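Risk register update: the risk that structure generation would not scale has been downgraded. Supporting records follow, first protein first.
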Amino acid sequence: MKFRTFNTLITAGIVVPAIASFYVLYSSLHYTYVHKDIDPVWWLHFLMPLLLILLFAVAYYLFHHLVLKPLLLLDAYVIGEVKDIPHSRIAEIEELSQQVEKQIKTLQELAYFDSLTRVQNRRSIERSLDMALASAKRDGNVFSIALIDLDNFKTVNDTYGHECGDHLLCGMVKRIKSHLREVDQIGRLGGDEFLIIFHHEEHPQNVVHALERIRKLFEEPFVIDGVSMISTLSIGVATFPDGGYNRQELLKYADEAMYQVKRQGGNGIVQEHIASTALIAS
């Protein structure tokens, strides 16, 4: 059966009840005029078909615009009556839903990840640090953090431009992540400063050894736009609970350790505790 015939039958499904309702209305009015009395049953008979027509009309409108009309256009396209391929409203709704989902994903990435290096942003990594602290206090675990700063990064920006500096930061993150465990987290605090959280590491010295392996990676030059450059790391380490019992204390001790490396010329690691300091430098 052609879709047009089906469309005609559906339309008749509205017209016939409408005629029946008008007939009931005429009979009701005639009864009222003759007997000078209003019979509620007659009005109920009249209103029920009208309600059914309304519900049927709404259902038909949605069915016609979302399903039947696209099928009719597709049929016309197949037999050559139209040249353009028709688009289904359902397909449009699905496409819109996919676009909204993509936008939500983009917003989530902007909220939690750094747009340049694709690691966690400051807000996200600090929240992860708070969660690590809460877990360590509850379970009595030990974990460490490391603040990492790229030596002479300002000189790279001033000499080769900020685009080159951006490429250097991305290369830096790639090298660091290649030597991190899956459980560890890295985030960008801003500029060329990054924070690493080493989860579930009971021996802080293992963290220092892992960072030393990362530091040695930066003895190999970066090649950016044909320019070869070496950019080393200054790293400060703090361990919970000896190096701080909250986020502010941990970051403070790690920051002090990192700037101790800076004052000694960079390219090194300082493990800062409340009562002890150990230096590993090249």
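Supporting record for the second protein:
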Amino acid sequence: MAQKQWAGTTYGSGGLHKSLIWTLRYIDVRFLYLFASIFVVPVCLILNDSRRTAYRYFRDRHGYGRIRAAWATYINHCKFAQVVIDKFAMYAGKKFEVEVIGMDRFNELASKDEGFLHLSSHIGNYEIAGYTLVSERKTINAVVYAHEKASVMENRNNMFTKTNIRMITLRQDMSHLFEIDQALCNGDIVSFPTDRFMGQAKCVECTFLGKTAKFPQGPFSVATMRGLDVLAVNVMKTGLVKYRIYVTPLQYDKEAPRREQLRQLSRAYVAELEKRVLEYPEQWYNFFDFWN
């Protein structure tokens, strides 16, 4: 399970992040895209093991040939660089064209008294959902990792407070569970990442892209303990400055035994995740052996 743990930290120092935000106030993001694809990504491919895991992902999970897998690995890293640039561009005040598919379902659940869950993974650019899926009636509580850079957390806070979003940091002492419980008791929304582990978390096993993979059980347990409605939310980059948000209800039998509910919900989520990954294979950003 150790290979699935993640530091939860954006690369770079606080000073570098601030410089990037300042720069993005005055230049087009597409200039940085070009710079990253020519000068940054090739160096990263040489120095980082991410090239190996990405290459195996395209070879083994998508069945690409050697040349196609190598090219897809390069494009995958370029798109990841663009997503990181876009995140800081938003901190700098830049706007992107965003299309939402399924907004009616989000609004329907947001109008009810009961809370509900968002489930997401490290594909596309989920953070954009925090500036687009906004509810006046409910606070969205985004579960995030505790060890993120202070500069990133500060900018997230500055942006999120404008859209009625607060962050709940995952902590080793498990105190975040009380905040999650309180948010749901208040009838609010909780957003979970579902593809990264912290510590020795319990897992569920599902067939994903043709091979068994482990997913953290926590988000599915929270939903089934309370019989909550659940939305899968995936934000995919569809153009240089365009994104599409897919909001998909996940169905499971809330009257079934608890173990069966966990099985149904986890498989419903993984099926939706697989659908998006097959549609956007180069926007998979788990740079470790996810299936190990």
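Confidence is low (pLDDT under 50) at residues 1-9. On this basis the risk owner (M.S.) recommends closing the item.
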